[in-house]
Amino acid sequence: MIDPGPSRHAILVRGLRKVYPGRTGPVVAVDGLDLDVFPGECFGLLGPNGAGKTTTIEILEGLSEPTDGEVEVLGRRWATDADEIRQRIGVTLQETRFPEKMTVRELLRLFRSFYRSGPDPDTVMPLVSLESKADAYVETLSGGQQRRLAVALALVGDPELLFFDEPTTGLDPQARRQLWDVIRDLRQKGRSIVLTTHYMDEAERLCDRIAIVDHGKVIALGTPDELIARLGGEHIVEFALGSVGVGGDGNGNGGDAPALTPDAFASLPTVASSRAEGDGFALTVGEPHAAIPALLDLLDRLGRPLLRLTTRRVSLEDVFVALTGRHLRDDGPEGTNGEAPAGGRGRRRRARAG
Ligand SMILES: Nc1ncnc2c1ncn2[C@@H]1O[C@H](COP(=O)(O)OP(=O)(O)OP(=O)(O)O)[C@@H](O)[C@H]1O
Q1: What residue's CA is closest to ligand 1, atom 12?
Q2: Per the record, where are the segments of Basic residues compositional bias (predicted)?
Q3: Is there a domain that residue 326 lies in?
Q4: Could you report the predicted ipTM of this complex, rounded to two decimals?
Q5: What is the pLDDT of residues 48-74, one digit of tens each?
């Protein structure tokens, strides 16, 4: 049971479950989730497609009913205090459809009229750098400008708590950065923020604390630094080996020499963990200057030629891989491999404004 005392929480969730009927049988989207979001923090739900992030945020926003569990938003419950909660939160959905024949200013004024109090819409436009578009029809705005308009619409009620569901999916790098700045400003002004994302760099840059979600459960929780520190080393050394003899991959498999496994590198100086990665290996290390010379010595003794070697800082992606053995996502404008986003796989929420 949730403690009935005065809530110090922006959000309190206990034992949240959501089961959808599904075509081929029940789908457990959220499976016993606990969350504590404190006032003034930017809290991230990070996880792969289908992890249950959107389902969770929809329940917090009062758009969907839980199958089981308890939810408090700003110390209130949706069942009894829906009007009050709506007056105190701002919601930016994954996608928003706007009425085409309204200007930016008209739409902001309309949304402002839904709230008892809040700023003059003209003072909100500069917060999202849309003042020059005040009299433009919303249909003429670019994708990034429309996302920022959606944020402005969430701000006109002067919310204490804001929800952003995958705020930058599909945006180009410049538009992403502009939206990051808007979210950072809101945080600096003391607003509580909950955002979902499958971009680890976004979570790392924006969030004070992150819950990594997989299969409807929180599998890790902490500040980005705490989560990264769990790996036991701050650097990743990735390398691939040439095969000895004919054929083979970067692990030595398929050539004449016996294949190497990640264990072969586990006892090198400051190596905290080792895994197969793509066509080679990835070592989590504390001190690359100690680990790399020892690695080169070992490969020399084993007679294995090095094809390539790179080092980088540990990311939340590595935390996810260490926890699940899978990658968080294979794309992202600034992700690990720079491939184009997979885009609209699965369901996307669309909201019609006005
Ligand atoms: N209305 C629905 N009916 C049936 N299953 C659903 C429904 N909505 C979501 N699901 C399923 O519930 C699971 C969680 O989906 P959800 O959209 O919450 O995940 P997510 O982490 O937000 O993923 P994404 O990043 O793709 O938005 C998935 O298996 C999804 O297919």
Answers
A1: 29
A2: 345-354
A3: no
A4: 0.97
A5: 888 999 999 999 999 999 999 999 999
